[in-house]
Amino acid sequence: MLRSLQRSLFLSIRIWKYSDDGVCCPIHQHRTFAPDLKNTFMIFTYRNVPSWLIMTIDLMVVAFSIILSYLVRFNFMIPQQEIAPLPQIAAWILIVKWISFRLASTHTGLLRYSSTHDSGIIFAANLAAGVVFLITNGISWYFFDYFFIPSSIIVIEFFITTLVMILFRLVSKMAWIQMQGTSREKQSVVIFGAGEAGILAKNALERDTSAKSDIIAFLDDNPGKIDKKLEGINIVGTKDLEGLLASRSVDVLIIAVQNISATRKQTIIDLCLNYNTRVLTVPPVIQWINGELSFRQMKQIKIEDLLERDEIRLDENQVRRDLLDATVFITGAAGSIGSEIARQILHYPIARLVLIDNAETPLHHLELECDTLKGVPEFHIVLADIRHEGRMRRLFEQWHPTIIYHAAAYKHVPMMEHYPAESIAVNVAGTKILADLASEYKCRKFIMISSDKAVNPTNVMGASKRIAEIYTQSLDDPSGTRFITTRFGNVLGSNGSVIPLFKKQIEKGGPITVTHPDITRYFMTIPEACRLVLEAGSLGSGGEIFVFDMGNSVKIADLARKMAKLYGLEMGKDIQMVFTGLRPGEKLYEELLNNEENTLPTHNPKILIGKVRSYDRAHVAKSIDELIRLGISGDEMRIVSAMKLIVPEFISRNSRFEALDEVG
Fold first, then answer.
1. Rounded distance, CA 530 to CA 546, Å?
2. What gap in Å lies between CA 408 and CA 359, rounded to an integer?
3. What are the tens digits of pLDDT across the range 131-148?
4. Fold of 185-301
5. 3-class DSSP state for residue 558?
6. 449 in Cβ contact with 409 (< 8 Å)
7. pLDDT in the model for residue 24
8. Residue 432 annotated in active site
9. Do the domains at 185-301 and 317-489+526-549+598-646 have one common CATH topology?
10. What is the pLDDT of residues 593-637, one digit of tens each?
11. Which of 432, 453, 565, 587 is the catalytic position?
12. Domain 317-489+526-549+598-646 class?
């Protein structure tokens, strides 16, 4: 048998040659080469070893264990009377072990992916065989008055066989990892977090042979762990990170801490970007596959991670009370904001949710997503346009909404500068239709999603949102429908945001286009903005404009440079930035309040109440009705001129409508 095994191994080595990446390539059989130790072991690493070969090796291990057990049992001096029955005993042990291994499938696993699960199977298979041997001895004693297999041999053989079989798989796996590691250049890795998640990240790297990683250090803030070792790897303090990045060429830093603050994360990422070190994060445990982390699940840091802030804590009880048993309408439900509000509201005890949008495909995708959610309230998908009063009225008659979140709007500044009539039709007339119906049908609350571009507007879009704010405020009735406005800046990842645009430009090789070197914007994540909308809506007593704390404004040119760094590119060398000039109606700086507005605090430091002017309902209604009639006429100059009369602070910038300001 041994000679046959040697012949098979040598033949396998002659027929197959292995490339560095582990892919086997056939060569001519007449070509021979001397099999060195590495080539010999390749059959246990690069290829999936045949199950018959693993079974053969396991049985050879059993045979070896039998002999070693006898030697150990009798102090390496086996009595002659014990040698005589040894062939029959060995044959019986091999037969039982073969059956046990076959039933447990110990020979079907991939050696290079052996795990504790495989060790458990080996233990169980040998234990089952041991039980059979004990039963055999019981039968032998009952009928022949002696033990067929010495009991001590059963025990010793069990431990030796189990240990050697497990060691064989472990050595094969380690050899595979070592050969893979030496075949390619390794990347140096630092893991932030010397806790359980850090160990799991290390294990995931070691399991994934494609990662080719050399873990050089753990980072941790805990003084009790610093200057110690974790699984043989040094733990250093996070204050030494910059020195480590400067002294060692660190390719990857993995953030393996789940509860790290946004500020702390940004500090680490910024530092790594300065040294061209990629940053990966370990996903939450619920996203691990079968409870096990893999290297491929570790996510690359996105630009959104550099702009996010510490999580906002909602007054959950207040929001829950406000939404209890409510019928909720969301307009613009398929958009970035509307869809996220829907996701969050579905986790509250509402009566039903009606999702309204005129964008067919995004609305279909939202329906598919909602269908997958378990235990959520009743929801309805409605394909409809808020400009159609008859259609909206039928929806109000059918469901009688309690609360409306009005997110439907045209939002693209340059597009609305070209088509002001459309801006009036949707942002003004559409809002008026919904607001009037909300008042008529005694809706409890109407929450309008506005924009920072409505403050001191310089473009048609911002002015149309400000006019919609004015109209809804004028309708507020403490004894009837309460009209509430929420105002915030850009949201990360929304349709039309600069971030998706920059991503496409970087993936195409550039250039990255920025309108002006000094242009800045406020940014907020979509979930954060929607949480604030829900809380502001629950706080509002009517007539308020809630202004969200957007943090610090971000220079768009700096944002583009950081995005290029995240892709491993150096601005000016690997990719270019081009300044294209301000677009029609575009501001350099956005504002959240105009010069005549002040704020009042709320219990949530992220939400302020803007103190705004009050408006006469009859005068506002008359002006807006006239504006809507002009919108239908399509006379763009007259449309914008009428908008400027309603919103005196509307001063056009970089637009053909600047002429109207000069005339005024």
1. 13
2. 11
3. 988 888 888 888 877 788
4. Rossmann fold (3.40.50)
5. helix
6. yes
7. 37
8. no
9. yes
10. 555 556 677 777 778 887 777 778 889 999 999 999 999 988 999
11. 453
12. alpha beta
